[in-house]
Design a protein that fits this description.
globular, mainly alpha
Length: 133
């Protein structure tokens, strides 16, 4: 089973930026679980809109950026980012009929990359003065 991480790169970046922007640590585990759940659903749809992987990831990051900026003042908006982050998997779709194993692989890769993204973002926020302000 091949584990595709190209649909999870946006999750890695989004999690890192969420940590840099000041996402409360108490919400990070919940955000990782939501990233996993929403990416599983997105990857298991089985249909595709024919959007390339790079374009889908760029589109999702462009959608997430204003929400991320607004979340610095209204932290509740951090909880919407996992849902926005799953849009790339809906745009890319699956590989034909619904396959549990490929969707589970995508969800696992998403969870791992979200955890790494939050860890990296936390490390960087401690190194960069004023990163979360």
């Amino acid at each position: 089973m091949q584990i595709p991480i190209d649909g999870s790169i946006d999750t890695f970046l989004m999690a890192a930026f969420m940590a840099l922007a000041g996402c409360p640590e108490a919400w990070r585990r919940q955000a990782i679980l939501w990233f996993i759940a929403f990416d599983f659903v997105g990857a298991s749809t089985g249909w595709s809109l024919g959007v390339s992987h790079g374009a889908a990831v760029a589109f999702v990051l462009a959608l997430a950026f204003p929400v991320l900026c607004a979340a610095r003042k209204r932290p509740i908006l951090f909880l919407f980012l996992p849902l926005i982050g799953s849009a790339d998997n809906l745009l890319m779709g699956g590989e034909g009929p619904i396959r549990f194993s490929s969707a589970a692989g995508a969800a696992i890769a998403t969870g791992i990359l979200a955890f790494i993204g939050f860890s990296l973002g936390s490390l960087l926020s401690r190194q960069i003065p004023g990163a979360t302000r």
